[in-house]
């Protein structure tokens, strides 16, 4: 083990530790949300995850982006198998440790990885064109200004650099691997000795562009190797700060999908208790409710801040890819209203990150006087929603922006009585006449008598 | 339509010691809105034609609470729901057919947790089952034969509950050309009425949702825009008027198409 192996081991361990620490923070933040039981029906949940996250079934509703995304996703996942070899080589100073054990199959694998790498490059280039040249509208909505756009482009450039490093590494290495053992030994490059015949399927086209001198090639190979692996470790640590975290959370998030019909909204349990008491003919309307043993505060109705949402709402926020498919299907957004379901998700995450930082700095019960409602999301946005579920249907990772909108509407109505005046009138009508308009319940069957 | 309809109520049937096969839940729009009342009557005619023994709650029916719930007023919703459930359970109702996807969704999905479990179907599903069971025969499209019809999926029937084929199946029985909008079925677009928007002004924007949706419908060059919801009906009718196309594009509920085609 040489000095470079020690350096590698240190970088590697530091990267993993730092990543784990950030994931731990995200987990803690998600668990700030209210409880909600999503442990039922594991069979259906695994299936949903397999279909939506692994199988990308909702991505391909839009075929071009969907297929390109599958290239990038499959490519990345599979090429990362090679990272295992790189890590072992890095720590123990070996070179392509799997090649002797796997023999011909190893070269088949590398060729396969290279084809995938080309597909990743294709996908990334198409994505860059869509964002920078075609300027697809949903990438230029107001909530995408600044960091979200930078973030999206960072991811694409990093992926290009990583693939370039991977292919360059293979291109230089293939020349070295084909050199005779004597020649390599005379240059002190014994570790490249192998019986490889011919270059790799994609990187062979890069070989011609590289110098032919073996010592220089070895230097290029090492540089590309380090760039590739340090790049991957850096990218790993970029994830928790980025929308790219979806590559991890897409799996649990689809596992914990809402399995009910989209039309089924939750019935607030706190309300249920109170209404049941009101409707109970045996209850004395003037009696103060008996204080139950260890009864908790009733808590707020609906949601004002992230802690009032469920942990699933918060996991949704961290899973959002900011793709904007929800917003592009949203009838309110399409007709120029302020509401954008993607912004609802981004705001929820931003606020949650802010709350998390507050806790890190000032302890668990820290209050910063801000809230998701008003400081991030305005009532105007919330009231524009038609509860149509188009956003829920469109989301490739089964996020439910509507559920957050509904919780915040509940807060506005039940805690602040802040209904738009026409809605307040509608409530009165429903309460008094049993219809949203001012018609008497006694007239409900009049239609049968009317002739026209 | 010249004479008043005979519509039995639950109370009447109960007094006679009879039980209907199905309760027809009319809904607020179906009871009070002039346009929607026509849909209600079309449904009644179809039920009668098929010899279905049905009843309505009449003056005992009350809002399901849906508009209050979608607006965030969970209190009023649950009070309405529990009051309705008391009535429904009192009559030991088992099966409900609704004239409105909002009533349908709320009673089907949200009432069970509050103590009201029924077999709830939308009228297009029910009519379909009548045909399947051989209780209702359709003679072909009548006046609609050969016409071009597009179907606007009500959000709370389609996406929210996965009912896409029932209304389409009925339309196809009319010997018409069913032409789909680009956004249909799972990807259908809201008419703009849902989420209690029906009862308020829209937020500031650059267009009304119903105009956008009507334009999408008109792109298919339809003779008829069909739908299955009284609120969608209002929205699309207003949209067609706004586009000054009411002379050659009609908006009908699927039940009205059937009733008219059958000359009921
Ligand atoms: S449910 Fe609301 S936010 Fe989602 S697409 Fe429909 S209108 Fe937009
Ligand atoms: S909520 Fe879903 S559809 Fe919307 S931007 Fe996020 S990932 Fe995309």
Automatic annotation (TrEMBL), chain A:
<dbReference type="GO" id="GO:0005886">
    <property type="term" value="C:plasma membrane"/>
</dbReference>
<dbReference type="GO" id="GO:0016491">
    <property type="term" value="F:oxidoreductase activity"/>
</dbReference>
<feature type="domain" description="4Fe-4S ferredoxin-type">
    <location>
        <begin position="375"/>
        <end position="405"/>
    </location>
</feature>
<dbReference type="InterPro" id="IPR009051">
    <property type="entry name" value="Helical_ferredxn"/>
</dbReference>
<dbReference type="GO" id="GO:0051539">
    <property type="term" value="F:4 iron, 4 sulfur cluster binding"/>
</dbReference>
<keyword id="KW-1133">Transmembrane helix</keyword>
<dbReference type="InterPro" id="IPR017896">
    <property type="entry name" value="4Fe4S_Fe-S-bd"/>
</dbReference>
<keyword id="KW-0411">Iron-sulfur</keyword>
<dbReference type="InterPro" id="IPR017900">
    <property type="entry name" value="4Fe4S_Fe_S_CS"/>
</dbReference>
<keyword id="KW-0479">Metal-binding</keyword>
<keyword id="KW-0812">Transmembrane</keyword>
<feature type="transmembrane region" description="Helical">
    <location>
        <begin position="70"/>
        <end position="93"/>
    </location>
</feature>
<keyword id="KW-0004">4Fe-4S</keyword>
<keyword id="KW-0472">Membrane</keyword>
<feature type="transmembrane region" description="Helical">
    <location>
        <begin position="105"/>
        <end position="129"/>
    </location>
</feature>
<feature type="transmembrane region" description="Helical">
    <location>
        <begin position="6"/>
        <end position="24"/>
    </location>
</feature>
<dbReference type="InterPro" id="IPR036197">
    <property type="entry name" value="NarG-like_sf"/>
</dbReference>
<keyword id="KW-0408">Iron</keyword>
<dbReference type="InterPro" id="IPR051460">
    <property type="entry name" value="HdrC_iron-sulfur_subunit"/>
</dbReference>
<feature type="transmembrane region" description="Helical">
    <location>
        <begin position="223"/>
        <end position="241"/>
    </location>
</feature>
<dbReference type="Pfam" id="PF13187">
    <property type="entry name" value="Fer4_9"/>
</dbReference>
<protein>
    <submittedName>
        <fullName>(Fe-S)-binding protein</fullName>
    </submittedName>
</protein>
From TrEMBL, chain B:
<dbReference type="GO" id="GO:0016491">
    <property type="term" value="F:oxidoreductase activity"/>
</dbReference>
<protein>
    <submittedName>
        <fullName>(Fe-S)-binding protein</fullName>
    </submittedName>
</protein>
<dbReference type="Pfam" id="PF02754">
    <property type="entry name" value="CCG"/>
</dbReference>
<keyword id="KW-0408">Iron</keyword>
<feature type="domain" description="Cysteine-rich">
    <location>
        <begin position="149"/>
        <end position="236"/>
    </location>
</feature>
<dbReference type="GO" id="GO:0005886">
    <property type="term" value="C:plasma membrane"/>
</dbReference>
<dbReference type="InterPro" id="IPR051460">
    <property type="entry name" value="HdrC_iron-sulfur_subunit"/>
</dbReference>
<keyword id="KW-0560">Oxidoreductase</keyword>
<keyword id="KW-0004">4Fe-4S</keyword>
<dbReference type="GO" id="GO:0046872">
    <property type="term" value="F:metal ion binding"/>
</dbReference>
<dbReference type="InterPro" id="IPR004017">
    <property type="entry name" value="Cys_rich_dom"/>
</dbReference>
<dbReference type="GO" id="GO:0051539">
    <property type="term" value="F:4 iron, 4 sulfur cluster binding"/>
</dbReference>
<feature type="domain" description="Cysteine-rich">
    <location>
        <begin position="22"/>
        <end position="108"/>
    </location>
</feature>
<keyword id="KW-0411">Iron-sulfur</keyword>
<keyword id="KW-0479">Metal-binding</keyword>
């Amino acid at each position: 083990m040489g000095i470079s192996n020690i350096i590698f081991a240190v970088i590697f361990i530091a990267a993993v530790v730092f990543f784990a620490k950030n994931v731990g923070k995200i987990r803690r933040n998600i668990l700030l949300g209210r409880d909600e039981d999503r442990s039922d029906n594991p069979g259906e949940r695994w299936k949903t995850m397999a279909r939506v996250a692994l199988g990308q079934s909702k991505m391909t509703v839009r075929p071009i982006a969907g297929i390109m995304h599958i290239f990038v996703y499959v490519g990345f996942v599979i090429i990362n198998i090679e990272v295992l070899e790189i890590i072992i080589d890095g720590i123990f100073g070996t070179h392509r440790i799997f090649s002797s054990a796997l023999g011909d199959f190893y070269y088949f694998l590398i060729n396969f990885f290279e084809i995938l790498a080309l597909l990743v490059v294709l996908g990334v280039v198409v994505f860059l064109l869509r964002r920078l040249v075609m300027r697809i509208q949903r990438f230029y909505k107001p909530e995408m200004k600044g960091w979200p756009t930078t973030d999206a482009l960072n991811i694409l450039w990093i992926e290009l650099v990583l693939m370039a490093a991977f292919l360059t590494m293979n291109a230089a290495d293939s020349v070295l691997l084909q050199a005779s053992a004597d020649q390599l030994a005379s240059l002190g490059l014994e570790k490249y000795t192998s019986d490889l015949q011919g270059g790799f399927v994609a990187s062979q086209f890069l070989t011609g562009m590289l110098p032919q001198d073996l010592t220089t090639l070895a230097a290029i190979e090492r540089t590309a190797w380090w760039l590739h692996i340090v790049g991957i470790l850096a990218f790993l640590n970029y994830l928790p700060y980025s929308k790219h975290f979806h590559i991890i959370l897409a799996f649990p998030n689809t596992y914990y999908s809402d399995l009910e019909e989209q039309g089924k909204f939750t019935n607030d349990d706190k309300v249920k208790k109170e209404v049941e008491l009101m409707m109970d003919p045996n209850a004395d309307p003037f009696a103060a409710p008996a204080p139950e043993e260890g009864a908790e505060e009733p808590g707020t109705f609906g949601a004002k801040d992230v802690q009032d949402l469920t942990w699933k709402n918060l996991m949704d926020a961290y899973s959002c890819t900011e793709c904007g498919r929800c917003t592009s299907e949203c009838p309110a957004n399409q007709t120029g209203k302020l509401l954008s379901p993607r912004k609802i998700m981004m705001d929820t995450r931003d606020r949650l990150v802010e709350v998390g930082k507050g806790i890190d700095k000032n302890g668990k019960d820290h209050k910063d006087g801000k809230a998701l409602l008003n400081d991030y999301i305005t009532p105007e946005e919330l009231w524009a929603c038609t509860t149509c579920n188009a956003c829920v249907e469109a989301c490739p990772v089964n996020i439910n922006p509507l559920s957050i909108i509904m919780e915040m509407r509940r807060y506005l109505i039940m805690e602040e009585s802040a209904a738009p005046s026409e809605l307040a009138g509608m409530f009165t009508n429903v309460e008094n006449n049993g219809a949203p308009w001012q018609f008497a319940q006694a007239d409900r069957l009049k239609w049968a008598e009317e002739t026209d | 339509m010249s004479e008043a309809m005979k519509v039995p109520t639950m109370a009447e049937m109960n007094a006679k010691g009879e039980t209907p096969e199905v309760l027809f839940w009319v809904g607020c729009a179906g009871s009070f809105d002039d346009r929607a009342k026509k849909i209600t009557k079309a449904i009644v005619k179809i039920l009668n034609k098929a010899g279905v023994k049905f009843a309505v709650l009449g003056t005992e029916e009350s809002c399901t609470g849906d508009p209050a719930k979608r607006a965030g007023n969970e209190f009023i919703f649950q009070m309405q729901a529990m009051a309705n459930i008391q009535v429904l359970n009192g009559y030991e109702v088992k099966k409900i057919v609704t004239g409105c996807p909002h009533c349908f969704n709320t009673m089907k999905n949200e009432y069970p947790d509050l103590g009201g479990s029924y077999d709830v179907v939308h009228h297009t599903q029910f009519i379909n089952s009548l045909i399947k069971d051989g209780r209702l025969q359709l003679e072909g499209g009548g006046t609609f034969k050969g016409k071009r019809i597009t179907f606007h999926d009500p959000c709370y029937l389609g996406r929210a509950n996965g009912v896409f084929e029932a209304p389409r199946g009925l339309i196809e029985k009319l010997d018409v050309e069913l032409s789909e909008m680009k956004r249909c079925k799972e990807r259908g677009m809201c008419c703009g009425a849902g989420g209690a928007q029906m009862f308020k002004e829209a937020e500031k924007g650059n267009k009304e949702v119903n105009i956008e949706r009507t334009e999408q419908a008109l792109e298919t060059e339809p003779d008829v825009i069909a739908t299955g919801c009284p609120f969608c009906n209002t929205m699309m009718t207003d949209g067609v008027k706004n586009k000054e196309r009411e002379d050659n594009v009609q908006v009908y509920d699927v039940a009205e198409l059937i009733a008219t085609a059958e000359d009921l």
